[in-house]
C-alpha cells in the first residue's frame, strides 16, 4: 500500500488495543457476575477506622520483626 508505515502501525496498534480492551471488559464482567462484587455498601466511619488501625498495627509489627532479625 502507499500509506505511510507509521499510519499502518498506528492502525494495527489501535485495533489490537481495542480488541484487548474488549477481551478485558468481557473477562471482568464474567468475574463480577461469577463472584458477585455488586453494590457493596461502604463501611461506616467506625468500621473504616477499625480496619485502618488493624492495617497500621500489622505494618508496624512487620517492621519491628524485620529490624530484630538483622
From TrEMBL:
<feature type="region of interest" description="Disordered">
    <location>
        <begin position="35"/>
        <end position="70"/>
    </location>
</feature>
<feature type="compositionally biased region" description="Basic and acidic residues">
    <location>
        <begin position="50"/>
        <end position="59"/>
    </location>
</feature>
<dbReference type="InterPro" id="IPR042977">
    <property type="entry name" value="AtJ6-like"/>
</dbReference>
<feature type="compositionally biased region" description="Basic residues">
    <location>
        <begin position="60"/>
        <end position="70"/>
    </location>
</feature>
<protein>
    <submittedName>
        <fullName>Chaperone protein dnaJ 6-like</fullName>
    </submittedName>
</protein>
